[in-house]
Amino acid sequence: MRISSVTAHAFGPFRGETLEFADGMTVIVGDNESGKSSWHAAIFAALCGMRRRRGSSRAEQEFARRHRPWGDDRWLVSATLRLDDDRVIEMRQDLANRVDCHAFDITLGRDVSAEVMNDGTPDASKWLGLDRSSFLATACIKQGQILQVTEDADALQDHLQRAAATAGGAGTAAKAIARLNNFARERIGADRTNSTKPLRQAWISVETAQNALEKAKSVHDEYTNRLAQISELRQRLAEAKQAVRLHEAASARDEALELSRATSRAKEIHERLGGVEPPSALEDDDLASQVTGALATWRSCPPVSPPPQRTSEQILNEIRALPDHPEGDTEPHNRVIQAEKAAREAQIQLESHSRSAPRTEFSAPDVPATDQELFDLIQAIQLGVPDIPAGLSERVRAAEGAVTRAQQRERTSIIFIAIGATLAAIGLLLLVTVGILAGIGAVAAGTAVGVYGVLQRSGVSSTEANREFAEARAALQAAQHRAQEAHALRQHAAARCTALGVSATPEALRAVLDARTTEREYQRQRANWEKLHQELVEANTRAASMLAAALNERGHYVNASDSESLFAAVDEYRRTCRERAELAARASRKADLERELQVVLQAERKILEDQRSRDQAAEQLIVAARECGTETHDPVEAAEALQRWLDHRSERLAELDSKRDEWTELQRLLDGQSLEELEASAGRAALRAKQLAQDLDENALASIPELVADERLPELRRAAADTERRLLTQEGELQQFERHFESVSEAEEALARAQAKLDQVRELKETVELTRGFLERAQEQIHRDITPILVATLRKWLPKITHGRYSDATIDPATLQVKVRNESGQLREAHLLSHGTAEQTYLLLRIALADHVTRGHDTCPLVLDDITVHTDSKRTRALLDLLLEIASERQVILFTQEQEVAEWAHSALRAPGHAVRELRQLAAA
């Protein structure tokens, strides 16, 4: 198949524009915004169209979003193709409505859409043995697709396997497997929770039947349990009612006994009180209150406190005798102390430093030369005159003789070689003219003479002898020059010492240097001492000023220049502080004495108040005692008499309270009725107890303790009522349960039917899996058949574009993943290499697949968009050369924006077999 032209009637940014292609290789060059990607998509759309189905995939939605015309309702593209059988076909694709779509044989004027119909629209890739997706996966490579593949190789491998599965005979096993998979998916399905297919439904039916059987068995067990529970409740109800009867009889028995006892006790109290209610209180309650209050007041009086050791008057006199608090410091101020300390330390440091002044002054002799010059003179004087080695003169003479001998040997050698050459030439002439023997003798003699001449050249040549003579003479001259320089230097140093007035010896020169060093050290020490002395004097002055300022602040004025008076002033300041401290200590007692005065005054007031309270309480006691018949003026005797009166009254109150309690008890026993009526109630209770005890076990009745029956009877009645209510409820529930009772046998039959259906589906699944196994082994054999072909193609092309760096490759037959072998023989996964190498490898694999899967069909063209973006210059040219070689067998259409590719195309492509097309930049929308 060859694509002659593509017309974008309304596609993306194009309106009625046509792009023509050569039969071989066509390179379409354009910058950004020139529509390269749109033309690439238009070629694909013109050849393959879009499927006509309800709904669209995400990829189709993205394709439409990118390439629908701008501001036009149409979306139409067409292409002219020439098939390998020389038919010329017009492909027309109405992408908007997908109605006006056809494949038309122009030569015969016939519609051939039926040959390539795919999902409702014509697809020219069917003539190639492909379909839309496999054509896009192998032969129509979009911009940036290869880089995406290197990041997610699974996506490409999926397309490649799909492409391989649709190719001729190699696709039979894959299609069969796909149909088996579809059959298994629809007629069997997977055993997943959310599956609605037969296998899962059969499992669900079995599980449902098993659950129903288990439920039926569980229901039957529950029915049996409920019957047992109802029987048990009936028994418990009978026992509860019997217990209620026993406790009711016991309660009646207890009630009769209680009424009998109450009647006896009421008769006893009635006889003791004579049937008259006792009074409620005694007549002397007011007097008792007076007595009780007087005793309480007396007993609550505080005890008489002892008087304080000193009176308030004594303390007040002592306060008046104290002095006032003195003004000024009572202890030396911290600033004065610190200033004094600093002043004394400054004075001590100054005196100590004055005693350490340098004592001996020193000056070096006056020599008008620098230290460096003196050092140089010492070196020059110590430097000896080197001797000339004795062997140097002999070496010069020997080298000179060797030169003479070498020149004589070379002259002799030249003479003998010339004679030998002449004799050899004469011998050759004799061989020709006279005879063999004469000629051979002359040649031999000439050769011998020549060899002797050559041997004379053995030994040291004249050139080597001359070089040795020159080196020996230069060494002798250098030694003589060094000796002369050393002698001149010593003479110059001695003359300079004489001019300086110093002995020309190293010791005398070093003595001058040592004297200079000593003088400089003295000057440095003297300068340092004077500097530090000045600093200490200033520090001493500052310390004295600060001490004087501190004393002036505390009211002791003194002159800072006189150190003796300054320190005397400090001593005076300390003495006055001590005196003020003594006065302050005495004056500080005033606050303590004033506090003590307040305490004593308060104690004296309390003693007076306590005495007043005791006098009032004593008066109340005496008055109350008089009211009770006791005359006394002693409060203690009055208190004792009143307490005796209260004790006697308490005895009378206790007797009255006892009678009141008995009267209250009598009223409680009678409970509003007369004594005769109480006796009649007791008789009726005894009769009722006798009646309730009939037909009951006497031992069981006697076993119920007295006064316990009434306590337990409400609980027993509630328990009996609760048991009866539960019995009625469970009997009603059992009746409802019986209406919905499920048969266990029916559930077992339903489980058997579901299990049989599951066995049928599982048997079908095993048959499908066995068949799939045979087919997968067949597909694996197909992969093994495909793999050598693809590997051979990669081995042929890969070294060309990588310049021998990768010369071999392998392909996984299951995943089509590529590994390449480097120069060291190691296999590396292609998608883990550099972006450029990975793209180049997978591009070659796509081309190889396109070549393989379309064999037996029309020749597949290659439509490539910017495949050299991540390829270096060297590999780009190699890849382009390879594509040009491939273009001899199939059409290659390459879109590019790279100037390097454009330059290659203009220089390598020749019409009419190949072509270069230039795209202009699109106008702004």
Q: Summary?
A:
Among the domains are: 139 residues, no CATH class; 120 residues.
Polypeptide structure, described:
There is one protein chain. This protein is α/β, with parallel strands linked by helices and 925 residues long. Among the domains are: 201-273 and 674-739, no CATH class; 382-501. The chain contains 25 helices and 16 strands. Helix 3 (132-138) crosses helix 5, helix 6 (172-188) runs antiparallel to helix 22 and helix 12 (390-433) packs antiparallel against helix 14. The relative contact order is 0.14. The model is unreliable at 149-171 (pLDDT under 50).
Relevant terms:
single chain, 925 residues, alpha/beta, six-stranded antiparallel β-sheet, five-stranded parallel β-sheet, 66% helix
**Rg calc:** 70 Å
**Structure summary, number of beta strands:** 16
Count, helices: 25
| Uncertain residue segments | 149-171
Mean pLDDT: 80
Helix content: 55-70%
* Largest beta-sheet details: 6 strands, antiparallel
Distance between the termini: 36 Å
**Helix/strand structural class:** alpha/beta
Main sheet: strand order: 2-1-4-5-6-7
Beta-strand level of the residues, as a percent range? Answer: 5-15%
What general outline do the C-alpha atoms trace?
Answer: flat
Give the topology.
Layout (H helix, E strand, L loop, with lengths): L1 E10 L2 E7 L4 E5 L6 H13 L9 H10 L8 E7 L5 E7 L7 E4 L4 E2 L5 E2 L2 E2 L9 H7 L1 E2 L3 H7 L1 H13 L6 H17 L9 H76 L11 H16 L11 H9 L13 H22 L15 H12 L7 H44 L2 H21 L5 H39 L5 H48 L9 H25 L1 H39 L7 H36 L4 H18 L5 H5 L6 H31 L4 H59 L5 E4 L6 E4 L5 E3 L5 H19 L8 E4 L7 H14 L5 E5 L2 H10 L6 E4 L7
Parallel strand pairs: 3-15, 3-16, 10-14, 14-15
Antiparallel strand pairs: 1-2, 1-4, 4-5, 5-6, 6-7, 8-9, 11-12, 12-13
Helix pairs in contact: 3-5, 4-5, 4-23, 6-22, 7-18, 7-19, 7-21, 7-22, 8-17, 8-18, 9-17, 10-15, 11-14, 11-15, 12-13, 12-14, 15-16, 17-18, 22-23, 22-24
